[in-house]
């Protein structure tokens, strides 16, 4: 992750957007793969400064790593190993998310990977304690970010597929940037 002073130097008039590293082509997913999005890498990169983040790497889970899943009980969100739900990694991941939230304090927006138990914005599969898939929701990092920064511009890569989605997000980001 770039140092804050480097970001300030690169920034100039450009907004800073924190972004899931895997969307920039970094092979940081649990299976060692990336999920690059060409529009983000080729076009959006010309108009902003990216600050890559990966909550699961920050938590020290490594690459490759066992897949995790989001589990909801009594409205509390937890993260457990998909292959062994008795292993709870919530505290480690939350501590990593807190560190990243402090690091992106100066960012003007956030682009996150859809369906991830860490980064998903709204469509991450949610499981109940009985091991039954029970719906969808936001990942752990996203929940913590939205709780700490209400009104912060947040979107996933699906939200940036349409021109209307791109324009709407960028208007929010530039407004946020101007207010700072
Ligand atoms: S979705 Fe988030 S936690 Fe998963 S690899 Fe991408 S950046 Fe890392």
Explained architecture:
32% of the residues lie in helices and 21% in strands. It has 180 residues and is α/β, with parallel strands linked by helices. The chain has one domain. The strands form two sheets. Strands 2-1-5-8 form a four-stranded parallel beta sheet. The chain has a four-stranded mixed beta sheet with strand order 4-3-6-7, with no helix packed on it. It is globular and about 50 Å long. The protein binds iron/sulfur cluster (SF4). The site of iron/sulfur cluster has 12 residues, from helix 3.
Number of helices: 6
Poorly predicted runs of 5 or more residues: none
Q: Globular, elongated, flat, extended or rod-shaped: what is the shape?
A: globular
Summed up, the domain count is 1
> What is the number of strand segments?
8
Query: What is the overall pLDDT average?
Result: 94
Structural class: alpha/beta
Sequence of secondary-structure elements: HEHEHEEHEEEHEH
Helix content: 25-40%
Query: Termini separation (Å)?
Result: 22 Å
Task: Tell me which oligomeric state these chains represent.
Answer: single chain
The profile of the biggest β sheet is:
4 strands, parallel
As laid out across the biggest beta sheet, the strand order is: 2-1-5-8
What percent strand? 15-25%
Report the bound ligands by name, code or SMILES. iron/sulfur cluster
**CA radius of gyration:** 16 Å
């Amino acid at each position: 992750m770039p140092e804050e002073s480097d970001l300030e130097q690169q920034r100039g008039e450009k907004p800073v957007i924190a972004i899931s590293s895997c969307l920039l082509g970094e092979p940081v997913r649990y299976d060692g793969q990336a999920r690059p999005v060409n529009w983000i890498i080729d076009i959006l990169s010309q108009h902003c400064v990216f600050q890559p983040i990966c909550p699961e790497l920050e938590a020290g889970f490594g690459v490759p790593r066992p897949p995790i899943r989001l589990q909801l009980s009594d409205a509390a969100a937890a993260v457990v190993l998909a292959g062994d739900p008795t292993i709870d990694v919530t505290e480690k991941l939350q501590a990593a998310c807190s560190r990243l939230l402090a690091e992106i304090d100066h960012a003007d927006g956030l682009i996150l990977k859809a369906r991830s138990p860490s980064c998903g914005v709204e469509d991450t599969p949610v499981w109940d304690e009985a091991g039954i898939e029970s719906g969808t929701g936001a990942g752990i990092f996203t929940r913590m970010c939205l709780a700490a920064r209400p009104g912060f511009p947040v979107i996933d890569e699906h939200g940036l597929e349409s021109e209307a989605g791109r324009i709407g997000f960028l208007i929010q980001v530039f407004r946020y940037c101007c207010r700072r």
